[in-house]
Amino acid sequence: MRKSLLTLVFMIALVSASPALAANTRVSGEQIPDLANACTETSLGTYTMEGGLVGCWYTDDYTVVSETKSGIVALRGREHMVGCLDLGNDGVCDATDPAGTLSFSFQFSGKFDVVTFAEIRGRCEHRIVSGTDDFEDASGVITFKDDVSTGIASYTGNVLLPA
Fold this sequence. Notes:
Oligomer: single chain
Structural class: mainly beta
Number of strands: 8
Low-confidence stretches: 1-20
Shape: globular
């Protein structure tokens, strides 16, 4: 009994001494090539974001890590998104949605046709490395899977914002 009471007191003290918990938001949606030029920054690749993330996504740079004669390619690079976490799930950034810039490091792997260089399949992982405004000190990981028939990538992941 005494050991259980001491354990309980220790657990309560530990919880009350812990810093405020961060807010973890699960995100999913689609990344669409910006064919309408809705996004204003110049980049190596520009996309609009729909779903849990709303805004513009930009490819800043990339390096070929490896490629094979059979068309397997691995890349790594940096990208950023200017927009918001759409907490209201209404497709727009409003005053209640955390907003700013999220910066990512990414790793891509894919298979390409060795004759036409057309992508056959691809996926990538993006780690949040920094943020501005409401995204300052954010962390998390977002993964993408390409739909090569449409050029649209579906994404899912987590964005962790400090409390």
